[in-house]
Amino acid sequence: MYKKFFSGLIALIVLSMLVVACAPQTTATPEATQPPAAETAAPQVTEEPTMPATEQPTEAPQEPIKIGFFSPTTGFAAADGTSALQSAQLAVKIINENGGVLGRQLELVFYDDAAKPDQASAIARKLIEQDKVVAAVSGSYSGATRAAAPIFQEAGIPMLSAYAIHPDITKTGNMIYRIGTLANVEGRVGAELVGKVMNLKKVAILTVDNDFGISLTDGFKQHAAELGLEIVLEEKYPLGETEFRPIIGKIKSSGAEVVYATGYYNEAANLVTQMKDEGLNIPIIGQEGYDSPKFIELAGPAAEGVIITTDLNRDSDRPMTRTFLEQYKATYGEDADMVGASAFDAVMVLAYAIKTAGSTDPMAIVNAIANLKDFEDVATGPFWNFTADREVVRPVSSQIVKDGAFHLYHEFDDIKLVTP
């Protein structure tokens, strides 16, 4: 029995030795058989063994470039925040489908700030310390954006404000840029619209009592004085106001020819509906806060004829504007708005800056943005340039609600008017 066992074992060992001797050598060539150093200077590529296709070594995929993003996807501003987020995601999708940036994919790291400054501050720290983003976009309102900006500035991370318009945002420091039109400029355009395009003089001003409303009204009043407009009534109301009839009564008795009313889509829908109900049929000038399908949905027929100042011209034939509007509708099943377009543009500008810089170095990114000229790859452009104070210079549109949709009313491209 033992003899049979050892005989089988010996046969197995011999067979194994034969297999090893015939197998290909995958270990390094022994030192004794390597050629002298002088002969290795020009290796003979043609003599290298070719590995089967399935065994070719592949490069490890590079890490994605992380862009931080925060917007209010819950709370009173959820419609705007969701639009901003979806538009930023659409920009990332378009960029990645076209090869990414510097051979790497973009990754959007996003959080909901509910338009609350304290949440925006916490998110900014998380994006910087935990997620290690190379840059960030605020898709939120002015209060939240103002809270986050100093945190990114101190960390030396670029942050772009998509549509928040308060002047103090970009005053934070050299790492903070704005994509949307500065409040003072948009307010100035509103006065130009009333005084020079519509040729009206007597204005009633309604201001939502927050950073957004106050900043817009300041810009309007400054240019209104230069144009000789007469402000016959000025009223403030709180965010979330639903009852405007007492103010409407005052407007009626003021002799106003036009109402300049700041606010968001909820307040705006209540205001215009109640004005129609009360028989006050004078023009209403709104701003980008009205620029949402929700405004038209909530106001219904009362929205007809309302004019707004905004960054998005739905009737533009620019290729990137058409791409954004059409792909947003196809992807999300609803019409895009200015808030979303601005968030889309912020991602496009960051992609351009990283590509132009050739790196993700923060200072290289902001320098590329600072030197941007005549940039067309945006939905709300063109962007002619950024000022030394990091404000964008670009045309501003006014849109009128006609047949249940926004359409071009007048385009403002006077460089003196639209330069902050």
Structure description:
With 420 residues, the protein is of the alpha/beta class. It has 2 domains: 65-181 and 315-386, Response regulator (Rossmann fold, 3-Layer(aba) Sandwich), CATH 3.40.50; 184-310 and 402-418, Rossmann fold (3-Layer(aba) Sandwich), CATH 3.40.50. The chain contains 13 helices and 14 strands. The strands form 3 sheets. It has a 7-stranded mixed beta sheet with strand order 7-6-8-9-10-13-14, with helices on both faces. A hairpin with a 2-residue loop joins strand 13 (396-402) and strand 14 (405-412). Helix 5 (183-197) packs across helix 6 (211-227). It is globular, with a radius of gyration of 30 Å. The termini are far apart. The model is unreliable at 1-58 (pLDDT under 50).
Task: Summarize the topology.
Elements: H1 2-22, E1 65-71, H2 78-97, E2 106-112, H3 117-129, E3 135-138, H4 142-155, E4 159-161, E5 176-178, H5 183-197, E6 202-208, H6 211-227, E7 230-237, H7 245-254, E8 258-261, H8 265-277, E9 284-286, H9 293-299, E10 307-310, H10 319-332, H11 338-357, H12 362-370, E11 385-386, E12 392-393, E13 396-402, E14 405-412, H13 415-418
Helix pairs in contact: 2-10, 2-11, 3-4, 5-6, 8-9, 11-12
Query: Which sequence of strands runs across the widest sheet?
Result: 7-6-8-9-10-13-14
User: What's the end-to-end separation, in Å?
Assistant: 101 Å
Instruction: Kindly provide the name of the CATH class of the largest domain.
Output: Alpha Beta
Task: Assign the structural class, choosing from mainly alpha, mainly beta, alpha/beta, alpha+beta, or little secondary structure.
Answer: alpha/beta
The dominant shape is globular
- Give the number of helices: 13
